[in-house]
Amino acid sequence: MRSIKRLAAALAVIVLAAGCGDQRVLERLAFTKAVSYDTAPEQDGQARDKLLVSIVIPKADPQGKMKREVLSAIAKSDKAARIKFSKQTELKIVSGQLRSALFGLSLAKKGIWTYLDTLERDPSIPQLVKIAVVDGNAHDMLARLYPEHPLPGQYVDRLLEKEAESMAIPEVTLYDFVRDYYDDGIDPIAAIVKMTKKSIEVTGIALFDEDRYVTRIEPEQSLIFACLRQNFDKGEFIMDLENNGQDDAQVMFSSIVSKRKVKIRRKSGNKLEAELIIKLKGTVLEYTGDSDLSKDEIRHELEKKMTAYVLSDAKAMVAMMQKNKVDSLGLGKQVRNSMSYKAWKQLDWDAVYPSMEVKVNGEVIIKDYGKSK
Amino acid sequence: MKEKLYPFHVGVLIYMIQSGVIIMSLPRLAAENFGYNGWVALILLALVSSLNILLISLVHRLGKGKSIFVLLEMSLPKFVWLPLYSLLICIWASTGCMVTKHYVFIFQMVTYNTTHAMYLKALIDVLVFLLVIKGIYNISKAVTVFFWVVQWMLLLLLFFVKDFEWARMTPFLFAGETHIMEGSLTMFSAFIGYELSLLLFPYAENNKKFMRAVILGNLFTAFGYIAVCFVCFGFYSFEQLKNMLYPLLDLLAFIQLPFIERIETLLFGFFLFTTLVTTVMYIWSAERTLVRIVPKAEGGMLVFLIVAAAFVVSWIPDTITEVQEWLKYLSYTETGVAFGLPVLLLLILLVNKGARQ
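The joint structure predicted for all components is written out below.
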């Protein structure tokens, strides 16, 4: 019995002592909430290949006026910048609570894989870090004081999260981006944000070719993009429809449940053809035209108009993506799955995609139209 | 009457010996070695290990549940079994401690990055020592508790349903760059552990249920592996999977609850239990073998010696790649033991039978 007690005591000492090894005292840590990457401004002809990295850390000082601190450094890599940050602050910088990584547009055009690889390699960085492109300079956006939003890191993060819920932008995390980057049948995408006078605004979707930004989808079109890309069950958008050949009528289509299907066919001469079929079902919450929606034929007429509206936009969008050689819809995945491995490897998908025939079909169904006729 | 291991406990024990940290990298190994849909290979490997268990059950039946040491010593001269035993002790003891060191190294990527690895390993070894000296009945009871502590984690796979995509699985089977032979051997090490059931003969109820439990334990291991790998193949893109060292660690890092996030550190802690059991059972096996060489020695002392010696040996490899290299060769040898030992025993049994007739 005595020996057991002694052993237990020895064990307790060892276990407790182990806790002193790698300490993390909350008050002495700086939790990076957001990080931004830009190409460094040119100075005296040098620093061309260098990077301007900035981080925002919230401050827990109750007496302090500032609720956050922004640290910036020009360095060759993300981690080199981190060492420079460390020299600027009394706190130990940790990245376990990192929420968003923002890339300036000029850097995104050059390619962002190197930086994503660093994020991916570090086990302390969460998989769910949101990736976004900043229309302009990402550092300026983070460093700016938004009087109504004292914590820019949290602000951007919650904005991206909330907008993604209604499919206004796709929710693109480190996981999503890296997954699509490696996939040979799809190209990655990310949200675009922009700094305005008083706030930060979501301004579209960035389409990448591998890791390079190529083109964008405007915010009004983002829901159509979402319909073409995936199934979803929460979305809303506004359509401008022709009303009796005269002025415009606006329809606000809400609570949309959308399903998409992709069919790959082989035409004569072994040419590939893809057909995207989308089906949208939702509620009309606003209608500024003068027709009576409770009448079946009128509603069906409206459904037809809405379908035509969606399809024409969708077709234009697909053509735009083909022209820019970005397969953001993942048609490559479907093509790959329609053939043998050997055939897929022999197929030069990047060359085939721009000239492939892609049909878009589908329908819009009005499930209900609110409380009035 | 002496207490016996129930079939349920045997099954759980086998399952817990088999599962270990290798599951962290298994999806990548499947992708690397078997190409697209490499997880299917696990079904084949599970069949191979089941066949191996059938071989063991034949030994069990023909030997009428006698201890394998009795069988060996009955027919082989001492100068043959002594080196054989010594070899087995070396293999088992080093496998046991390398598994722990591997766990510690991966653990250190997440937390305690700069603490000396051997310090953490020493802490685990204390637990191992305390468990092994309690004997197999108490080990098996503890293992059953550990089993329930760990097993709920399979339900976490439900988190990945939303982002799982069939299109990512592709219809290709074993296509792309493959290393079937080497890959099979490497991945088979995930199943290794069931061969220790050879040592359980004298402690289990002497009937068919015992071997059935071993097979079920093995199949449950296979089920866990296949479930995890299957999810990984649909959750990650193929090239990405090939590029991730520890896909399961990333998978755990993906889980986020509304009230808490970054729980992978906590979740990874649970894998300590499966690793602990693997080490405990290998050290226990080494001790059981050592007892045959020095029957008069005190049990606790032997365990201490083995754990201490293994601890010293495990000091040698200093980086995670070295540990993995060691483990690779150890598991190759252990696979050899898993097939070789039952075959040797069967030969002995058949020769004895022939001689009697």
